[in-house]
Amino acid sequence: MTQRVALVTGALGGLGTAIAQQLALAGHKVVAAYHPEFDKPDEWVKEQAEAGFKDFILVAGDVSDLESSAKMVAEAEAKAGPIDILVNNAGITRDRMFAKLEKDGWDAVIATNLTSLFNVTKQVSTKMAERGWGRIVNIASVNGVKGQAGQTNYSAAKAGVIGFSKALAAELATKGVTVNVIAPGYVATKMVTAIREDILKTIVDSVPMKRLAKPEEIGFAVAFLASELSGFTTGATLNINGGLYYQ
Prior knowledge:
- By secondary structure, the protein is an alpha/beta fold.
- 47% of the residues lie in helices and 15% in strands.
- The protein has helices at residues 14-25, 41-50, 66-80, 103-131, 142-146, 152-172, 190-193, 197-206, 215-225; strands spanning 5-8, 29-34, 57-60, 85-88, 134-139, 177-184, 237-240.
């Protein structure tokens, strides 16, 4: 198998970590991108080494900012080589009912969850097309497909991720570059499992499978979409939500 270089944004979070690990297990060289103000890279590297993952390459950047994203990708390429696989995973929430949602809460979520796709993908997609091979996997959400009260900003951003991906997939379809989306449901990350027990039970009860997704189940799906054998899959949205929503 040809070893590819994969860049994962938001890699130090629960889902990002699982994605990075599954790509590493698939044999790829993985660059883990993180936010310099909010993440703790030294702690993360130690945890990964203890788990047997000792070869991650780290780069810092703010994906909501175009200039910072360009510098981040340039650093990744300098350390690891041309980016063959891009996973746009970085995301935040600022949940409020719309009547109480302030403009800064809207702007922050749109910038980090949607505008970031422009900022980061812009740095690599043309180069992928020129080389004739590339995989772009964008992480959306079940709430970008079905909507969710209290998440007009998040739902709008994640729906935008799907539209962006379908359009870019059409543009790159003859260039050897695929663009796909994974829309996870509720995933058992540390953040989710720390939710108050009664609220978490309500969430789990809403899922037909009566459980949360394992982070590695999402990571494995990313690894498939990043593989050689996924080459005829593009413009697709893979809903991994335990039957919570079908479309």
